[in-house]
Amino acid sequence: MTVSLNDLVFVAMALVIVVAATGVVMLKNIVHSALSLILAFVGVAGIYFQLSAGFIGLVQIMVYAGAISVLIIFAIMLVMDKSVEKTNLFSPNIIRLLAGMGLTFLLFVTLGVSIWFTKFPVVPAEGPVDAVGMLANLFMGDYVIAFETAAILLLVAVIGAIILAKGAEDKQ
Predict the structure, then answer these.
(1) CATH architecture entry for 1-89
(2) Domain spans in the chain, listed from the N-terminal domain onward
(3) pLDDT score for 47
(4) Between the CA of residue 145 and those of 78, 135, 140, 155, what are the distances in Å?
(5) How far is Cα 168 from Cα 172, in angstroms, rounded to an integer?
(6) pLDDT tens for each residue of 123-155
(7) Euclidean distance between CA atoms 162 and 45, whole angstroms
(8) Phi, psi values for residue 63, rounded to 5°
(9) Is there a contact between 23 and 32 (Cβ–Cβ < 8 Å)?
(10) Whether 39 contacts 22, CB under 8 Å
(11) Taking the model in full, what pTM does it have?
């Protein structure tokens, strides 16, 4: 069995994602956990790029590593106390740690067994697919109402957040 460079890159990115996701849960400083979450999001985008899904990889970076992460960090900064110890209420103990490790092990065993016994279909190699063009046709064709509704909903949410932030500033 030969191991290709593609396999090594996948394993390296998977390790980065697992380490970053572990950092999200294990780091004591909540801001460091949020930054570790950004690294995990970027690692997932790298996996998408490796799978030749460039559009989804870019969306992963823009939406999750960009917008959602900024939103999370902004929320953390709004509720954070001057003392980090007062903000971080998590107090790990050995029972919680062992329970989490046991559940994680059970999850990995279940996923491994299900992947091992799954019969994956062979996908015929076709020519290059214009995924962005297909998505554009769907967004601006069949799903234009849903797309525009989501855009209006996001606009209303941003305006509401600005009004709330402005009101909080005026009270101080």
Answers:
(1) Up-down Bundle (1.20)
(2) 1-89, 94-120, 129-172
(3) 92
(4) 34, 15, 9, 15
(5) 7
(6) 666 666 677 778 778 888 888 898 889 889 888
(7) 30
(8) -80, -55
(9) yes
(10) no
(11) 0.59
